[in-house]
Design goal:
The chain has 149 residues and is of the alpha/beta class. It contains six helices and five strands.
Length: 149
């Protein structure tokens, strides 16, 4: 992946469990309005469901370079983050502030943003998504560290 922020030539893959459904639906609108193509990997309702069923397809799209980046949402953000990070080349970052989303990109070249819907308000989630997608990886001294992952 280059040092540039994400480009819009590939879609954003997005997924969630029941706890993240409302955020996902609203974030899809935000992304579409910003000119992104969005690939929704589910869930499609607030019915109780298992987060790996949605985290794996999002991570696979990023891993296979079929998506520019991924966004995953669950109650704590931990489950989707752990699941996504099982995929080769995925650097999923659990973020709860805009600054963490920025640093995940700048220093860690994260390619999947994980949002804890039960611990951040929607406006913070929106700020994190915008920041994550527009922030480039700094490279330099961070490149060496990322390559050790």
């Amino acid at each position: 992946m280059s040092n540039a922020s994400f480009d819009k030539s590939r879609p954003i893959a997005i997924g969630c469990d029941h706890a993240g459904f409302e955020y996902k639906e609203n974030l899809k609108k935000l992304l579409s309005t910003a000119g992104w193509q969005v690939e929704d990997k589910g869930t499609y309702s607030t019915d109780s469901t298992d987060y790996p069923d949605y985290a794996h397809p999002v991570a696979a799209m990023v891993e296979e370079e079929k998506a520019a980046a991924g966004i995953l949402i669950c109650g704590s953000g931990n489950g989707v983050c752990m699941t996504a990070n099982k995929h080769k080349g995925i650097r999923a970052a659990l973020c709860w502030t805009e600054e963490l989303a920025s640093l995940a990109r700048q220093h860690n070249n994260a390619n999947v943003l994980c949002i804890p819907a039960r611990f951040v308000d929607y406006m913070t989630a929106e700020l994190m998504v915008n920041t994550f997608l527009s922030t480039p990886f700094e490279g330099g001294r961070h490149e060496k560290r990322v390559n050790k992952i």
